[in-house]
Amino acid sequence: SSNSGHPLRFSETANGTHGGGVEYTTGVTTNGTPGNAGAYTQIEVASGAPTLYYYCTNHSGMGWTANTV
Hints:
Structural class: mainly beta
Number of strands: 6
Order of helices and strands: EEEEEE
Largest sheet: 4 strands, antiparallel
Distance between the termini: 29 Å
Shape: globular
Helix content: under 10%
């Protein structure tokens, strides 16, 4: 329930779309509505993937670097 209203996404840009970047979708699967039972965001990181950042699509400043090494 703590994720309600906070859709988690990934980007190659810090702060994602709030920072002028675009959503990174390679290997990413989302299901359900954040905050509801069974909802999730999953990523299968490809070999050689760039540095990625996770972020909330609704709120700027809610995210950081996602270590993929």
